[in-house]
Amino acid sequence: MSGTLILVRHGQSEWNLKNLFTGWRDVGLSERGHEEARAAGQRIKAKGLKPDIAFTSALKRAQVTSDHILDVLGLAGLQAIRDQALNERDYGDLSGLNKDDARKKWGEEQVHIWRRSYDVQPPGGESLKDTGARVWPYYIREIQPHVLRGETVLVSAHGNSLRALLMVLDGLTGEEIVKVEIATGVPIVYRLNADSTVASKEILEG
Question: Which of 11, 25, 96, 112 could form a disulfide with 185 if both were Cys (CB 3.0 to 4.6 A apart)?
């Protein structure tokens, strides 16, 4: 067995709370989001896991989540690498809109297709497939080598950038991955074999 990969979707954001499409808009965590991030740190700590390196997106909701987790683990000075390759899916023209208002404007079915299809882009934005096209190379080039060296790696990112990773790690199809929900602030722990295949997966729920 090789190393450990810990994936965490950021805690609830202010716009999650308001039911708005967020995407690349740089919004902060809600009070609940801060609590979820600290709770994620406690669950990781309870498992005896100590990251050797952390990766996060270019967006502060993921960065602050990572900071809270590392603080709880007593690792506030740990190197955290930020890259927009791990950013949330870009919702384009939907960004900043209330999801209910979007349904009124374009119709329930069209908004559902934009949100839950694998390869259909919202106007001016990215599909989940597009998101994967930047997440997968970054993971293989920058993150996976640390895990294969036997390190424990924390990745604090977003619902759709993490969906793209889960698709590969769990061997899911485009149809299967869009049905997967990733809860805010709940760590997913993978242990990888030396050949990069998954040895085990555990979701650290409360």
Answer: 11
CATH number at residue 108: 3.40.50.1240
Q: What's the domain range around 124?
A: 4-203
Least Cα distance to 8 among 120, 157, 172 occurs for 157
> What is the token pair recorded at 200?
């085990």
d(CA 180, CA 196): 22
Q: CA–CA separation, 90 vs 135, rounded Å?
A: 13
At 157-169, the pLDDT tens digits run: 999 999 999 999 9
**The one catalytic residue among 36, 68, 88, 126:** 88
* Domain count for the chain: 1
Residue 10 a catalytic site member = yes
| CA trace torsion 72, 190, 64, 127 (10° rounding) | -170
Catalytic: 88? yes
Torsion (CA) 93, 94, 97, 103 in degrees, nearest 10: 130
71 is in an annotated binding site: no
| Residue 203, amino acid | I
